[in-house]
Description:
- The complex is a heterodimer of chains A (142) and B (381).
- With 142 residues, chain A is an alpha/beta fold.
- Helix content of chain A is 47%, strand content 16%.
- In chain A, strands 2-1-3-4-5 form a 5-stranded parallel β-sheet, with helices on both faces.
- The longest helix of chain A is centred in the C-terminal third of the chain and has 26 residues, at 116-141.
- The model of chain A has no long low-confidence stretch (mean pLDDT 88).
- Chain B has 381 residues and is an alpha+beta fold.
- Chain B folds into 3 domains: 28-133, PAS domain (Beta-Lactamase), CATH 3.30.450.20; 137-225, Helix Hairpins (Orthogonal Bundle); 228-381, Histidine kinase-like ATPase, C-terminal domain (Heat Shock Protein 90), CATH 3.30.565.10.
- Chain B has helices at 14-34, 52-58, 62-65, 76-90, 135-187, 193-224, 234-244, 246-251, 268-284, 342-352, and strands at 38-43, 46-50, 95-103, 109-121, 124-133, 230-233, 255-258, 263-266, 292-300, 303-309, 357-361, 367-374.
- In chain B, the strands form 3 sheets. Chain B has a 5-stranded antiparallel β-sheet. Chain B has a 5-stranded mixed β-sheet with strand order 7-9-10-12-11. In chain B, strands 6-8 form a two-stranded antiparallel sheet.
- The chains are: A alpha/beta (142), B alpha+beta (381).
- The interface between A and B is medium-sized, with 13 and 13 residues.
Amino acid sequence: MEILLVDDNPGDLRLAAEALKEGDAQVRLHTVQDGMEAMAFLRRTGEYMDVPRPDLILLDLNMPRMNGRQVLAEIKEDSTLKYIPVVVLTGSRELEDMVKTYDLHANSYVTKPTDFEQFIVMLNSITSFWLSVLGYEWRGVN
Amino acid sequence: MVQASKVDQRPASTEAAGGEIKQSRELFRILFHSSPIGAYIIQNGHFRLVNHQLAHISGYEESELVGKPSLSFVLAEDRESVRENAIRMLKGECSVGYEFRIVTKRAKIKWVMETVAPVYYRRKRATLGSLIDVTERKQVEERLKQMTAEMQRSNTELEQFAYVISHDLQEPLRMVSSYTQLLAKRYRNELDSDADEFITYAVDGAKRMQTLLHDLLGYSRVGTRGKPFGLVNCEHIVQQATANLKIAIEENAASVTYDVLPTVMGDEGQLVQLFQNLIGNALKFRREEPPSIHISVQRRNNVVTFSVKDNGIGIDPRQSQSIFEIFRRLHTREEYPGTGMGLAICKKIVERHGGNISVQSRPGEGSTFHFSIDMGGGEAE
Lengths: 142, 381
């Protein structure tokens, strides 16, 4: 399973990688640090010519240049990308952020737990859930 | 038909009548001129008669006032409203305590409070007015208004500040906490025992800081994220609070009882939190015997006072004020966990509802928390 993680904080990127390592899901993690890079990755432009189409996108909200909401809107308006599940992964516990995110058709809104053990559990259950529901047939389509 | 006999109201003689009129004129003259209140008669918009005190307040001589248009002494911006007030008065309404500004001879602006009434003067319609200088009171009021506005502004700023720091500090702290936990997970027992101890303290410190920030955020939310007031049934509120504490109540084999509770104006979510914090405290600071909590209510005029009584460990009366301060704890973390924010949040919620909170207690004999809610319904400014 190919996962694209979009987060501007290198500490968060590494933490997610470590958390996935602690789990047993067979995943390949790709990371980019802002929205522009995320769109380039998804559209396979520039340096991202040969990257795979991700099966799941984990998206932070607050990022420079192009933030998570803009990325989400653009993905969900693109007929070739909108089927990719997007899980918004954020530090914000604001109800308003959650409502806005679902308005933009996010598949899930998840607050990053402050406890690392909980983070491991959360990240691995998200990936195994999407891994189980997507199935091999679907993953071939992308 | 019985004819009612007419009472003869005429004075005994015209001579006596003349004497009485003279006497009452004299009385009026003395009263008018020695009054500590500025008094005057206006006819056709001009001063016809003024007293010493009006001259004193305005800084003009009496002779400089008589014959002049009365409005010319009023500050230009206030003239229109003074004129309108005079028209209302002529329609038969007496005007009492009307406030406006005048300009004195030395070009100083003074606030005055005026009472006017329609009268006849020399057989023609006129206005009898009296006024006092209220400049000092106005200045104090103005200063008070400014200070209140300033305090409100700085309060809002402080709440915003607390909100922003607790919110924005969560992110870097999550890094510290997660990575120390990761260190502990990967390297515990691979380093020496000192290193393990250091890691334990670092993990523990970061976790504690997170709880503190979380509670500080909760505290600042009372002011910044409050909902508008509505009618709230307090029995529902207490039922919701006890439902949220269901597990803790069952684990402690506690009993929570309450009288018939009224409907009040308030923020439902915050009132649930208030009762929940107080009941939760009673469960936490319990004695050996099962906790027993009773909520009663008293109503006086527009103020409803709730009392939450428990049979717990009680509080040293010397601490009965300080327990409502933020991060105030009376026990070690080992004895009772928590950041000491619960009662500070209660206080803030009660104050937002225009009330006060206090505690009555003796160590070992339980505590009773009293808090009031103003039924006036307006959010405390």
